[in-house]
Specification:
The complex is a heterodimer. Chain A is α/β, with parallel strands linked by helices. Chain A contains 22 helices and ten strands. A five-stranded parallel β-sheet of chain A has the order 1-10-9-8-7. In chain A, strands 2-3-4-5-6 form a five-stranded parallel β-sheet, with helices on one face. By secondary structure, chain B is an alpha/beta fold. Chain B contains five helices and five strands, in the order E-H-E-H-E-H-E-H-E-H. Chain B has a five-stranded parallel β-sheet, with helices on both faces. In chain B, strand 1, helix 1 and strand 2 form a beta-alpha-beta unit. Chains A and B meet through helix 4, helix 7 and helix 18 of A and helix 1 and helix 3 of B.
């Protein structure tokens, strides 16, 4: 892109500046730190100039928004046409409690729903399972059967609102219940829009809410891909998630690399299951973390788009442009919030959210200041949503596309990020792909090492966190916290038992035996069987138990 | 891997001890957030403590049975799901039933300040809240926990 002669001149003048201006100045005022690095501990130069970017090509590396390789964004107009979806993650207590929170958030101007399920649901247990004791409704909403799902979306028309559901192990079961609710509302499947996370590979690496071992899990996922490409075309079938990999302590590069490598594994599995790539790839989406290092994060999103476009076009030979576009949801980093001086978290979230927006996200969740202590109160979640609205409506950053494009620093970081992430992907390819790499514990070890390294830097004061290892206050001002009522568990257990008592027992049994039989035959798609079971109020735990029998369960390899 | 031993700092193990301090790091309940547990397990191992890590999704019964089998001196629990008010006391109850009441039980995670006195009253020795430097936990273990025999 640059004139070679000019570049040589710039390099020479940089050298002169270093010798004549910088060196004497450094002698007078030495740098604050021995080494400047990002939060991922990648070294950062004093100054970025055009000369190391000599291979940078505007048309090839950036192009135009809405065009390959999409570095500057996936839509030609980006936020001028439509702002990102403001999608606050919510779920606690019973379906009634969460339905009320959904309605509150919609009334505050939230534009999409996002559901947090409690741990028993995430792990495929009903609320009356002994495994669920003490956990019902604590960290999300308790969903055991269609009955709970009906209450959760009561008064919320599913043809008008899109819902994101953070569910992985039992994604197919929860999705089946969602479709059954849509059916009861009279909404045909082809009008239903939303997202299930359904990213099981990330679970083995980081989040750890799994049920079945990798192979049968991949079978369920390809069943969903095939089913949706025929029946629910507006549904985002997998939200390939780096968020949790980052929360588990990975670096930005690892988040990018492992997430894209997971994406590669899903595309490969879909193709091997006989589905043409352009039939399902346009409905894959991504989910990234917005951590604290502002520019590193922006570079990460831009690199991700470019990498995915190249991988889909060159590696998988996808023809549909929609298969090349990486669309992503962003969530600000829960792990960066401090329990100390919790009001400061509002500022952290604002900066992280801004990096997501400057990185071109399609959808955003901003964390609430109280989340290191409990689930968010109405007041805290309103501030978090208002943060997005202030960025959107007041800051002016949504007025032009990719305003940081062309910054020497941002372009260099984007290139570096892509190069380092591709190195990881090459390693994973050599191991035989992500499923094989996970079995060897490779990404798990890399993330654990990075988490430990970062903790050491914090403990040594080499990474400073305000309120934690810098600027501590003797006493924190307490903030109000949400408490989950102890009675939620009792009520939920009673409701689930009642659902089992009232349903047509014969039909429910028939659904379960059909599911069991279907699971033994790879040619059968499990989705229609699960939708049938959901309609008959078969519970999530029952569906999962049936498949546990035939598919087996995954256990933690307990590495540290 | 789970019971890997490291050379570690000599100061962590009292001189009189006939063997190293043995700690079970446990993840009770269904939450999968094991970053904290793994960091503590590594830090204790590096400090010369013998660490047994249970892995995820353990029931109180599984944790106590592993503690008995491994003859540990202390149990460190990490939990973020909010189920600590049920799971911690249940583990203490099971330890007492198995005549293992002298095993020191400590924990940490997302635990509201208001819950801490109740947990201490039920027999939890110490609760660490988010942001505690790892060295503080290592120091606590090396002074508070002794090899039981």
């Amino acid at each position: 892109m640059y004139d070679r002669k000019k570049l040589a001149g710039i390099a020479a003048r940089r050298k002169k500046w270093q010798d004549e201006a910088l060196s004497p100045s450094l002698r007078k005022s030495p740098p604050r730190l021995d080494r400047f690095s990002t939060v991922s501990d990648e070294e950062i130069d004093l100054l970025y100039t055009p000369d190391p970017l000599s291979n940078f090509d505007y048309e090839e590396d950036l192009g135009y928004p809405g065009q390959y390789p999409y570095t500057r964004g996936v839509q030609p107009t980006m936020y001028r046409g439509r702002l990102w979806t403001m999608r606050q993650f919510a779920g606690f207590g019973s379906a009634e409690d969460t339905n009320a929170r959904f309605k509150f958030l919609l009334a505050q101007g939230q534009t999409g729903l996002s559901t947090a399920f409690h741990f028993p649901t995430l792990m495929g247990y009903d609320s009356d399972s002994p495994r669920a004791r003490g956990e019902v409704g604590m960290c999300g909403v308790a969903i055991d059967s269609l009955k709970d799902m009906e209450i959760l979306f009561d008064g919320i028309p599913l043809d008008q609102v899109t819902t994101s559901m953070t569910i992985n192990g039992p994604a197919a079961m929860v999705f089946a219940m969602y479709l059954a609710v849509a059916e009861r509302q009279g909404v045909p499947f082809h009008k239903v829009g939303g997202t299930i996370q359904n990213d099981i590979l990330k679970e083995y690496i980081a989040q750890h809410a799994w049920i079945f071992p990798p192979e049968p899990s991949m079978r369920i996922i390809t069943d969903i891909l095939a089913y949706c490409s025929e029946n629910v075309p507006r549904w985002n079938t997998i939200s390939i998630s780096g968020y949790h990999i980052r929360e588990a302590g990975s670096t930005a590069v690892q988040e990018l690399a492992f997430t894209i490598a997971d994406g590669i594994a899903y595309v490969q599995a879909g193709i091997e299951a006989g589905i043409p790539v352009d039939k399902f790839a346009p409905r894959l989406s991504y989910f990234f973390n917005a951590h604290t290092d502002f520019f590193e994060e922006i570079a990460k999103y831009r690199a991700a788009r470019r990498m995915w476009a190249r991988i889909m076009r060159e590696r998988f030979h996808a023809k549909d442009e929609n298969s090349w576009k990486l669309r992503f949801h962003t969530q600000t980093a829960g792990c960066t919030l401090t329990a100390q001086q919790p009001m400061n978290n509002v500022v952290r979230v604002a900066l992280q959210a801004l990096s997501g927006v400057l990185g071109g996200t399609q959808s955003l969740h901003t964390n609430s200041m109280d989340e290191t202590l409990a689930l968010p109160t109405e007041q805290a979640v309103t501030v978090a949503l208002r943060t997005q609205q202030i960025i959107a409506e007041e800051s002016g950053v949504a007025n032009t596309i990719d305003p940081l494009g062309g910054s020497f620093f941002v372009e260099q970081l984007t290139n570096d990020m892509e190069e380092k992430a591709m190195e990881y992907i090459r390693k994973i390819d050599e191991m035989g792909g992500m499923v094989a790499a996970i079995k060897q514990g490779y990404p798990q070890r890399e993330v654990a090492d990075a988490a430990f390294h970062f903790q050491r830097l914090v403990d040594a004061g080499k990474k400073r966190i305000v309120g934690l290892n810098a600027y501590r206050s003797p006493e924190d001002t307490p903030i109000p916290l949400l408490k989950i009522d102890d009675r939620v568990e009792k009520r939920q257990v009673a409701r689930t038992k009642e659902v089992r008592r009232k349903r047509d027992a014969k039909k429910a049994r028939a659904c379960l035996s059909a599911l069991k039989e279907g699971s033994l035959d790879r040619k059968v798609n499990l989705m229609p069987l699960l939708v049938d079971a959901a309609r008959e109020y078969v519970t999530l735990g029952e569906m999962c138990d049936t498949l546990r029998e035939t598919m087996g369960v995954y256990t933690d390899p307990a590495m540290f | 891997m789970a019971t890997a031993k490291a050379k570690g700092a000599a100061g962590a193990t009292p001189k009189k001890a006939s063997r190293k301090i043995r700690i079970l790091v446990g993840k009770p309940g269904l939450d999968g957030h094991d970053r904290g547990a793994k960091i503590i397990a590594r830090a204790l191992r590096d400090a010369g403590v013998e660490v047994i890590y249970t892995g995820l999704h353990q029931t109180p019964e599984m944790i106590v049975s592993a503690a008995a089998q491994e003859d540990v001196d202390g149990i460190g629990l990490s939990i973020l799901s909010g189920a600590h008010n049920y799971l911690f006391p249940r583990i203490i109850q099971l330890l007492r039933e198995k005549k293992m009441g002298d095993v020191v039980l400590f924990g940490g995670g997302i635990i509201p300040d208001a819950d801490i006195p109740k947990l201490l009253k039920k027999g939890v020795d110490r609760v660490f809240t988010p942001g505690t430097p790892i060295q503080e936990i290592v120091d606590y273990v090396s002074t508070r926990v002794q090899p039981r025999k």
